[in-house]
Amino acid sequence: FDMTNLNAGSVLxxxxxxxxxxxxxxxxxxxxxVNVSLTPDPGYRATIGEAKQVAVDSSVAVAGKVIAATxxxxxxxxxxPDRSAAIKVTLPTPDSALHSKLGKVxxxxxxxxxxxxxxxxxxxxxxxxxxxxxxRIFLEGLHMNGRTVLDSSAGTDIVGLDVKVVGxxxxxxxxxxxxxxxxxxxxxxxxxxxxxxxxxxxxxFVSVEGVVSLDGATPQSAVxxxxxxxxxxxxxxxxxxxxxxxxxxxxxxxxxxxxxxxxASITLQQDVVHxxxxxxxxxxxxxxxxxxxxxxxxxxxxxxxxxYELSSWVKAENLQLPTYxxxxxxxxxxxxxxxxxxxxxxxxxxxxxxxxxxxxxxxxPGITIANAVDALYVDDVEIxxxxxxxxxxxxxxxxxxxx
Length: 403
Known about the structure:
This protein is mainly beta. 2% of the residues lie in helices and 43% in strands. The chain has helices at 48-51, 146-150; strands at residues 9-13, 21-25, 59-71, 75-79, 86-90, 105-114, 121-129, 142-143, 162-174, 177-181, 186-190, 205-215, 223-227, 255-258, 264-269, 279-284, 294-297, 300-301, 307-319, 323-327, 334-336, 340-352, 362-363, 365-369, 373-385, 389-391.
């Protein structure tokens, strides 16, 4: 262990598969090297799958696992980088920034526990370490069908994995859960009571992303369910007044930039709206050219590395390209609008917020008009978490001809 440039004190030495050790040293060591002997950790297991096989209430440790989902500020689900297994972990101390650490690689040691109500295995961590200078690994929900999620005899234990299932809502069985069927099995979706969700109705076609967990009154009666760990509700701290309904200033929270020399304009009007009583109307006679544009935008705080979805409703009359939604300050996303004339359509784009040193926490969502348009109406602008439960269009049936 190189002690160069360190003052007197102590340092905690960690290594995967070994018990951490605090090393004390005196001043004046200079460029000398101190050899540290670490004791192998008897609870260390190379994979999460192996960790789940140790006896309950035994010591266990894993290293190099990825934060795939978070609940509150002290519960995370870790996955193998190859998605082969996952496990719930309770942190030794709450971390208010846990939600922003998706994709981070961590080492954990503690005790393997079993939930007394459901039998779900989890690690009660006594040590949680995030190795520095390790690139994040962003894991998307694994696309699975209901049969795969429900089959507990399928060898690999998928409890804890972040998955995505698409299906029709069969029933709403309580204020906090509903049942969907994707053709492969009926799955219950459990939602925490404190979560506000874009709640579906019977017959809706939805996409659900969440963690496979266990639910029941006893381990013997527990069944597999999906627990969304983000709610997909509108995040009012990012887009405010997205429907232009604020009074008395309907442009509250919005900014307007005109680089067309006065050829573009915006008005708030009530004649053409998607919902509510107001919508924005943008017109421009400016032709496309270098640095010629107008922009309707907001500037808001966002969570580093979080996945979001921006959506809006637009209606156009003789729209010429380019006109697009973008994050002008960070360039995290860009979404071109269709050209031409059309009635109200929903536009949406998913993106992950990654900041830069100049604007470390700021998001600059806005719509840029860089060519002529007779009228572009904008209404119901939202930014949501990109994961959770989302109502989607049901795919058209596929006809198969015999041959």
